[in-house]
Fold Fe-S oxidoreductase.
Amino acid sequence: MTGPLQIVLGTISVLFLIVASVMAYRAVRAMVRIICTGQPDGTRFGPVKTRLKTLAIESLGHTRMLKWSTIGVAHWFVFVGFYGLFLTLVEAFGEVWDPAFHLPLIGEWSLWNLFADIIGTGTILGIVYLIYRRQKDHPRRQGRTSRFAGTNEGRGYFVEAVVLTVGICILLIRALKVSSDLTDAPAWSHPISGAVATLLPDSPDLLTIVAFVKIVVSLTWLVVISRILNMGVAWHRFSAFFNIYFKRNADGAPALGPLPPMTSGGKPIDFEDPGEDDIFGRGKIEDFTWKGMLDFTTCTECGRCQSQCPAWNTGKPLSPKMVIMDLRDHLYAKAPYLIGEKTASETMPDYDILKPSDEQVWASGYARIEGTNDAQAHRPLVGTLEEGGVIDPDVLWSCTNCGACVEQCPVDIEHVDHINDMRRYQVLIESSFPSEAGVMMKNLENRGNPWGMGGNVREDWMKELDFEVKVADGPLDYDIEYLFWVGCAGAIDDRAKKVTKAVAELLHTAGVEFAVLGNGETCSGDPARRMGNEFLFQMLAQENVATLDAAFEGRVPGMRKIVATCPHCFNSLGKEYPQLGGHYEVVHHTQLLGQLVEEGRLTPVTPIDRKVTYHDPCFLGRHNKVYTPPREILDSVQGLSTQEMHRCKDRGFCCGAGGARMWMEEKIGKRINMERTEEALELDPDVISTACPFCITMLSDALTSKKQNGEAGEHVEVLDVSQILLRSLTPVGVSAPGAESGADVGTKADDVAGTGSAATEHGPTA
């Protein structure tokens, strides 16, 4: 069935394939060379079996994509169609020459034909839905709130058009084989294409033309991406597999929790004796590791991270997506200088003429310099528009380290690590950071706490208890089960001290033997580390490790237990201190209290007729996956009506205090704590509950402002979960140091019994 048409189109197809293959090979080689210019990182390769398992689960199971279910299902069909139907492209080369061509062995196999029919149709339907969602969520409709704001829409349209065209061609080729009687496969193996065949003519030549179109479109896509190495929306089809395999945690957990130690040349920096050529943080694009560069390359510009970012959602310039895009575009623009193809001039360029593009004028730092030139070679990684910076300082310092971006990224990009690595360079090398944070760091260095209070105040909270709290003086007695890590806020901040007293009361009531370090405790170092001052973190952490090791002297693993009320301390002590040789079994107070309730050692007896909504602290929830214990404690309290905010658990919204933002003024956009408090007040609660002293401070401040403006009832409170539990253990009218008002949670001033509480007007728990 080979005629002149087949010969001409077949010849063109083969020639095009040769050209496209050569271009693709050169593109991949260039990409690998560029990525390999990054610093080494030897932690990403094993264990191989665990990483391969994670890769299989995440890619084939689409576990991260399916966090957004409908979009995830649509993308799964497109994903399976791209790889599973690759053989249809191979077959198309034969069909151009001979319309009756079939793949050897499987061409007429019924199951293969059924698979191709179903997945081919699923690919078409999937991409049509994704096209619909891109248009529905387009910035022209949603403006800045669109997750596609800042995305290169033209590239997205191109990829979508290619997928749709190829999918249609696959179905048409199969249908034309049926209508032209060129297949012996049973009818049940091609139900969809068989139905389409009833609308098509008997035309082998048309089949050849459609196969040719499929080849040309596919190879055009390959040529285009070979010319545009920073086209993540296309290249992620290949690089995502490697990015998932080489993710920070081999077991598949997102890159949250502990920050990795500062490394140079692939090895942790010894701050007591650093090498002369050690690189502190990331001050240039080439300072990132090869894995960081792979992250930048893999970004699909889908905007999931952006849609969840509390900074972006409150009008700040930080978009995690655009941070990665900016780094990626700068990497590939500077690439000729990195691999030695070009040499930068010694003269610094004039950046005064730079302006953000009209489309991205609201996104500070985006698309300031385009193309490969000396400006790219010289520009600082972090800097203002006038300085030609790749990342604007306002972008860098807006991050709360909440981890929403990392949690949502379908290709495992490690945004928080990269942002903090850039902060480390700014703090340690450039000494450039918000002035308020400088006061906090001085207080940490001189006083051991962010507030600058004297160390002798750390034991004041114990004076209001009616029982003695043991203070560690040397190794702990073996009857002490837990060391209670009070934390700076828990010992100094008035609101957090109430939580400290409540937890102490509950542990005492349950018969748990515990002790505290008292004045021997100093800051865990979390604010310093998240700020970027790794040197100060190391100093504080090493001091604490020495203190803790002395307290746990003679104890074997399993007997070195710490309970902490602050999720930031909980994260540092349990996840980051092992980097410095400090190994302890650290639990959050909600975990321990939940266990005590389950064991019957704490039994809520007093019903509390109030409506409560729970706010997930980022460093307890997303960073450490502790979602259930606080909710189980609330569920154990009789009478409580609980309702979730629409952004909760792994999609919870930050209070605005993380990433050392607690000690930095929020000058741009809406205050994050106001946004979160408004979200809680929409549910008309009596109590906004949480389990973090920073969250209590931020939410309380916002609630006070709302009360002053008449936008919240005077009876509404912000309480820690432990305070509610303590009140449920306390008879009405009897006060307790940590509970203050017994069981009367959220009571209106003129409603002592609580019978008129808003909670009594609500229906079933949502």
